[in-house]
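Lab notebook, design round three. We kept the backbone fixed and only want residue identities now. Task for the bench partner: fill in a sequence for the structure below.
Input structure tokens:
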């Protein structure tokens, strides 16, 4: 099956009436399916548990998006055993056949693109373009990893040794536990899961409790393509109750996690402790939080910088690991920048994400809303509130006004801790060097951007701005599969570079085979 070269899935242009109509009809069709029940899937068997939990629409808190069976410790045991059993056959399936599952899944997801996006609009409050980008990224991961798997399964270069016939093979690891976050509930979930599966591993997927329904849609898609039973097991449930035991299980060979620093570090520690009967050191891929900065130099097109900062800070309500949460601005343009920025922020429209006019939807849940409001209260003390500052006019969900706090000190909590909401701290820098120093001075190192016209400063940023994903004269969100392999430094994670050529190696182990030939 020749798929040709990898190309990113284009975003949908919703200014075209036919595209708007298609999304509207997808929203209607998904609306008629809200409230459906979803089962655990263990070894191909659908298991409905007595206790279940509801996934709610954060924009209409009374609306149940789906009722989801709730796994327990006992299901952990069954799911890991089912995955372990399935691994024996799956690892022997030819690589091209495994890749073909991803390609077919990509085709099907492309065909039902707006439907997948609509689920995210309801389940996590993404606006149309944000949901569309999430689905496009999921398609990209399937297409990209499908091709990458073919590359890794092909002949690998080794230095010739006289008298020997030598070879290097990449083998899968075994049972993987995949634990995604809710904020890219399709792209990241499908990316981690498909990378693990395509390389010949089997998986137990524990979705985020805030986004289990979109994960269930993906699992159902792979099921419909005839993926062998037990290769992908679906185990929703609480992070502590199900996630912990999955990570700790002696048959678990690796863990692929994306989420908060706190949970990532806990998983890393738990996985490091060998259990009775365990025969390997578990591998942990953990992608975590950020405190990403955009540096605005004095030699700059202010409008362009303001536009990049607004898109990076408030896209999906600031709930991206890559979101700009610090704007670090040269004192020479600080006041002018703030004035323009405030105007843009005040003009942002907050509303129900089903409405294509909305630029910001709700934050994910009540707990997030409270935490963000607490940070805003801290920000009022640590800096000067100049836009937003509390709940938005839209009621019925967790809506916050996009909030802007100026004059924040580099070491203030607002400048150091991940808030994960529509709150931007603006920090004044003496000059470009000072700005870079401030930018690097957190425990994180995920994304960062610099706006300047000065090529020498761009060079300096390349050398000194220590982040996994650096952007020059553009926003710091919206990494594209293939073009911008994604992953952070320091406490932002293990720098796995999702969507890059090194990523699948994390799911493989290499075997060297040397055969003596001739005399
Ligand atoms: P989270 O609270 O850490 O949860 C992530 C996942 O871990 C969820 O599936 C959660 O399940 C599970 N979990 C919770 N406690 C666990 C435990 N004790 N053992 C095993 N699993 C456990 O993160 P989130 O709120 O979903 O996502 C937001 C965070 O993700 C932010 O910090 C953001 O920066 C980060 N993020 C990073 C990247 C990146 O690429 N670096 C990308 C996206 C997001 P429950 O839902 O059941 O609690
Ligand atoms: Mg929800």
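Proposed sequence:
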């Amino acid at each position: 099956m020749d798929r040709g070269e990898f190309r990113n899935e284009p975003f949908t242009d919703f200014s075209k009436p036919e595209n708007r109509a298609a999304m509207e009809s997808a929203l209607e069709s998904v609306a008629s399916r809200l409230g459906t029940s979803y089962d655990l899937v263990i070894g191909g068997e659908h298991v409905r548990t007595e206790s279940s939990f509801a996934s709610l629409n954060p924009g209409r808190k009374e609306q149940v998006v789906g009722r989801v069976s709730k796994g327990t410790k006992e299901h952990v045991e069954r799911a890991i055993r089912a995955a372990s059993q399935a691994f024996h056959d799956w690892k022997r399936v030819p690589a091209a056949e495994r890749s073909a599952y991803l390609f077919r899944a990509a085709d099907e997801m492309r065909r039902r693109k707006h439907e997948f996006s609509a689920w995210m609009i309801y389940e996590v409050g993404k606006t149309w373009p944000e949901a569309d980008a999430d689905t496009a990224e999921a398609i990209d991961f399937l297409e990209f990893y499908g091709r990458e798997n073919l590359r890794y399964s092909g002949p690998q270069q080794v230095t010739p040794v006289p008298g020997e016939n030598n070879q290097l093979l990449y083998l899968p690891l075994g049972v993987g536990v995949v634990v995604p976050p809710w904020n890219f509930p399709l792209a990241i979930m499908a990316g981690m899961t498909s990378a693990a599966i395509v390389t010949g591993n089997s998986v137990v997927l524990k979705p985020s409790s805030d986004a289990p329904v979109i994960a269930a849609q993906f699992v159902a898609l792979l099921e419909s393509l005839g993926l062998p039973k037990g290769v992908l097991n679906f185990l929703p449930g609480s992070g502590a109750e199900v996630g912990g035991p999955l990570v700790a299980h002696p048959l678990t060979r690796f863990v692929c996690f994306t989420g908060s620093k706190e949970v990532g570090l806990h998983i890393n520690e738990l996985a490091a402790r060998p259990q009775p009967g365990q025969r390997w050191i578990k591998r942990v891929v953990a992608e975590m939080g950020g405190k990403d900065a955009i540096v605005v130099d004095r030699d700059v097109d202010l409008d362009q910088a303001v536009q990049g900062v607004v898109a990076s800070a408030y896209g999906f309500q600031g709930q991206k690991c890559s979101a700009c949460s610090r704007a670090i601005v040269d004192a020479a343009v600080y006041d002018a920048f703030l004035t323009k920025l405030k105007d843009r922020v005040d003009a942002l429209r907050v509303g129900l994400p089903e409405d294509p006019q909305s630029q910001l939807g709700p934050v994910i849940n009540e707990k997030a809303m409270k935490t963000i409001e607490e940070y805003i209260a801290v920000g009022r003390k640590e800096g000067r509130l100049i836009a937003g500052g509390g709940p938005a006019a839209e009621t019925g969900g967790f809506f916050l006004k996009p909030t802007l706090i100026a004059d924040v000190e580099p070491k203030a909590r607002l400048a150091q801790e991940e808030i994960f909401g529509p709150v931007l701290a603006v920090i004044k820098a003496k000059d470009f060097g000072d700005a870079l120093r401030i930018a690097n001075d957190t425990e994180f190192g995920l994304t960062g951007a610099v706006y300047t016209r000065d090529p020498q400063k761009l060079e300096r940023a390349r050398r000194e701005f220590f982040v996994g994903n650096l952007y020059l004269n553009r926003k710091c969100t919206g990494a594209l599969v293939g073009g911008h392999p994604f992953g952070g430094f320091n406490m932002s994670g293990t720098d796995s570079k999702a969507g890059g050529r090194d990523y699948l190696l994390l799911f493989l182990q290499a075997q060297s085979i040397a055969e003596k030939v001739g005399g």
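Keep this in mind before ordering anything: The chain is about 40% helix and 20% strand.
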